């Protein structure tokens, strides 16, 4: 079975973002970029499926500017077999990415597509669900465990207040949550080997996909700053400061004892 | 203009998230309808009828909506969508599962996790773990929006039922997905998202035992919900659904007490809108003190029992 795995190039999660002075967006100039952390988890899961003999081939896909090749090389170093870049300078929104991935899926005919649950730049959490809809496939989002057997997939999903397990028929779309696995690091020999693995480049036009943005960003601003912290010396001082909060006040007005 | 809200419910009852979404819908303006799709869910639908501002409650009750799977729910909503200018859901794990799927079926964008309504087609949403706020405008005929619950007040509930649920034709069972298990955390504490006080613990607690022994007495006193950092959860101190942050729950209680949490941006993303933030940490340079209102530097093993006793 072939597994498609998606990797987005985003600002490294350790970098503190700067907002452009004109409020048009976030400044990406000279900023360290990296693979979206959830996509590292997606790649790891796909590679483990191949190592377990369940998957036969892992194909990594990225959509965006030419530099996404670096992200794809990382995916290859982590164990993907080949890579596809859908190259464009257009600012891609989740629906456009989902349409590009749909076009790739129709060509590649994978049995499973694993995406990250969320890109840490737009925090959209949409692309996998959209792709599943476009393909009319089942979706197992926010997955924390996966089991593939007999043409079926079982996934445990992290949901509000607990977890649930779904069984879906393949082909299917999965989005990876944080606890699906712990991604490995790329070793130097594997980074060298990755340079020789095939990386194919295509474009939205070649795939016949219109990627025109649907949403216009009018402005981007910093959130309101909080007031400066008051450092207190001890618990008594702390309690004095928070005594006015209703839930604390009720406690303090009640007679002590028991 | 008419707005459809996907209700958050567990068949037997309505979840409070729905109330906050009604308030967001009120800011857009227009007739507000609520969809309750589930199995044996008429009680939830009757509860939705009690929300002030709701004009109509649509009830889709069928066994294939048990578990409220995204595939069948999105297909049902697809058949209803043309009557609406806006479709809203809470940015809960359920809303986030269904609405993007519906958006793709309708060939429209989806706007995630809004914290403000600027106008009927323009919304404010956090990006980059809440380090930036983007104002985005949609040109689509139907706006699909998930709502950050903590950013909107709850609508009033308890008005005498002025409306009755309207049963609607159910959509097909696509048979794509089957739920084979569900384990919900059992807790007598308030839900994280709705709690007035949240006590959150981090790696500094050092063990599951400490986490519970130190934080529970404090939470008991304050009637608080218990949350955690990712590090505390990865270390197995507490269940996954307690995670607060960019990729966990977003909370904005009256009082948030961060104990043994360093304050990574991914964590802060989930709690920075809290009214009053207290941080207890032994490291005076911990970034948590940059978002806290009150900071106490010291050993949590000594300070937390002291605080519990002093309240
Ligand atoms: C893609 C991605 C998503 C993420 N999403 C989230 C998320 O949603 N939520 C989240 O929380 N994290 C998230 N993280 C992880 C985040 O980056 C941090 O690693 C995590 O929040 C750290 O948890 P912590 O503060 O408990 O641990 P640490 O950073 O290890 O901090 C422990 C703190 O405890 C203090 N301490 C230790 N002992 C004591 C003592 N005896 N008394 C007092 N203080 C003490 C230390 O000084 C330290 O500041 C995410 C990371 C990534 C990459
Ligand atoms: N431009 C892109 N290229 C490749 N994968 C992407 C891209 N955008 C989003 N994805 C995938 O979709 C997931 C969810 O992204 P989002 O819906 O934007 O939060 C990411 O974790 C990626 O796996």
What labels would you give this structure?
heterodimer, A: 258 residues, alpha/beta, Rossmann fold, nine-stranded mixed beta sheet, two-stranded antiparallel ribbon, 13 strands, globular, B: 311 residues, seven-stranded parallel beta sheet, five-stranded parallel beta sheet, binds flavin-adenine dinucleotide, binds adenosine monophosphate
Uncertain segments of chain B are none
Beta fraction of the residues of chain B?
25-35%
Radius of gyration of chain B: 21 Å
The two chains with the largest interface, and their residue counts, are: A-B, 80 and 92 residues
- What is the number of strand segments of chain B? 16
Return Rg of chain A in Å. Answer: 23 Å
- Give the uncertain stretches of chain A in residue-range form: none
Annotated CATH architecture of chain A:
3-Layer(aba) Sandwich
Give the helix/strand class of chain A.
alpha/beta
Question: How would you state the average pLDDT of chain A, rounded?
Answer: 95
* Oligomer description: heterodimer
According to CATH, what is the class of the largest domain in chain B?
Alpha Beta
Rounded average pLDDT of chain B: 96
Provide a count of the helices of chain B.
Answer: 9
- Total helices of chain A: the number is 8
Distance between the termini of chain B: 50 Å
Q: What share of residues of chain A is helical?
A: 25-40%
Task: Describe what you observe in this structure.
The complex is a heterodimer of chains A (258) and B (311). Chain A has one domain: HUPs (Rossmann fold). Chain A is 29% helix and 29% strand. Chain A is built from eight helices and 13 strands. In chain A, strand 8 (152-159) and strand 9 (162-169) form a beta hairpin. In chain A, 48% of the residues are buried. The model of chain A has no long low-confidence stretch (mean pLDDT 95). In chain B, helix 1 links the parallel strand 1 (2-6) and strand 2 (31-38). In chain B, 27% of the residues lie in helices and 28% in strands. Chain B folds into two domains: 2-167, HUPs (Rossmann fold, 3-Layer(aba) Sandwich); 192-310, TPP-binding domain (Rossmann fold), CATH 3.40.50.1220. In chain B, helix 3 (70-80) packs across helix 4 and helix 5 packs parallel to helix 9. The chains are: A alpha/beta (258), B alpha/beta (311). Chains A and B meet through helix 3, helix 4, strand 7, strand 8 and strand 9 of A and helix 3, helix 4, strand 5, strand 7 and strand 8 of B. Adenosine monophosphate binds at residues 6-8, 36, 38-39, 42, 62-64, 92, 94, 97, 115-116, 118-119, 122, 124-128 of chain A.
């Amino acid at each position: 079975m072939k597994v498609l795995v998606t990797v987005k190039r985003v600002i490294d999660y350790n970098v503190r973002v700067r907002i452009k002075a004109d409020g048009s967006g976030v400044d990406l100039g000279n900023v360290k970029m990296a693979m979206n952390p959830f996509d590292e988890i997606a790649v790891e899961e796909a590679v483990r499926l191949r190592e377990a003999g369940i998957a036969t081939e892992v194909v990594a896909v990225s959509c965006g500017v030419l530099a996404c090749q670096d992200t794809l090389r990382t995916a290859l170093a982590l164990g993907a077999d080949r890579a596809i870049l859908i190259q464009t300078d257009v600012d891609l929104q989740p629906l456009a990415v989902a349409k590009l991935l749909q076009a790739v899926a129709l060509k590649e005919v994978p049995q499973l597509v694993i995406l990250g649950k969320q890109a840490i730049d737009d925090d959209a959490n949409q692309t996998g669900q959209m792709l599943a809809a476009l393909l009319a496939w089942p979706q197992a989002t926010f997955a924390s465990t996966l089991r593939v057997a007999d043409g079926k997939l079982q996934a445990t999903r992290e949901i509000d207040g607990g977890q649930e397990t779904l069984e879906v028929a393949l082909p299917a779309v999965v989005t990876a949550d944080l606890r699906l696995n712990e991604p490995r690091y790329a070793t130097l020999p594997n980074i060298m080997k990755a340079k020789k693995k095939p990386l194919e480049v295509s474009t939205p036009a070649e795939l016949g996909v219109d990627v025109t943005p649907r949403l216009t960003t009018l402005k981007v601003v910093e959130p309101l700053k909080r007031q400066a912290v008051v450092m207190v010396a001890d618990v008594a001082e702390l309690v004095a400061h928070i005594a006015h909060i209703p839930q604390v006040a009720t406690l303090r007005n009640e007679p002590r004892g028991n | 203009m008419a707005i459809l809200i996907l209700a958050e419910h567990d068949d037997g009852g309505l979840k409070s998230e729905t109330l906050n979404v009604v308030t967001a819908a009120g800011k857009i303006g227009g007739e507000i309808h609520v969809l309750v799709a589930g199995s044996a869910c008429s009680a939830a639908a009757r509860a939705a009828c009690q929300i002030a501002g709701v004009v109509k409650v649509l009830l889709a009750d069928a066994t294939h909506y048990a578990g409220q799977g995204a595939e069948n729910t999105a297909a049902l909503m697809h058949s209803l969508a043309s009557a609406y200018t806006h479709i809203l859901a809470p940015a809960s794990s359920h809303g986030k599962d269904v609405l993007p799927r519906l958006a793709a079926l309708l060939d429209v964008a989806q706007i995630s996790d809004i914290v403000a309504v600027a106008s009927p087609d323009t919304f404010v949403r956090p990006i980059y773990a809440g380090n930036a706020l983007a104002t985005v405008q949609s040109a689509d005929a139907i706006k699909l929006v998930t709502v950050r619950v903590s950013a909107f007040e709850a609508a009033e509930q308890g008005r005498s039922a002025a409306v009755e649920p309207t049963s609607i034709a159910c959509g097909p069972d696509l048979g794509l997905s089957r739920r084979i298990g569900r384990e919900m955390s059992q807790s007598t504490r308030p839900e994280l998202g709705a709690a007035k006080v949240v006590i959150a613990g981090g790696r500094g607690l050092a063990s599951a035992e400490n986490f519970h022994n130190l934080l529970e007495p404090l939470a008991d006193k304050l009637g608080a919900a218990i949350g955690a950092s990712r590090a505390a959860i990865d270390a197995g101190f507490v269940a996954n659904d307690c995670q607060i942050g960019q990729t966990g729950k977003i909370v904005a209680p009256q009082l948030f007490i961060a104990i043994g949490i360093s304050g990574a941006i991914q964590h802060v993303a989930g709690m920075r809108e809290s009214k009053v933030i207290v941080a207890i940490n032994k490291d005076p340079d911990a970034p948590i003190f940059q978002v806290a209102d009150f900071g106490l530097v010291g050993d949590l093993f000594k300070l937390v029992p002291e605080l519990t006793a002093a309240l």
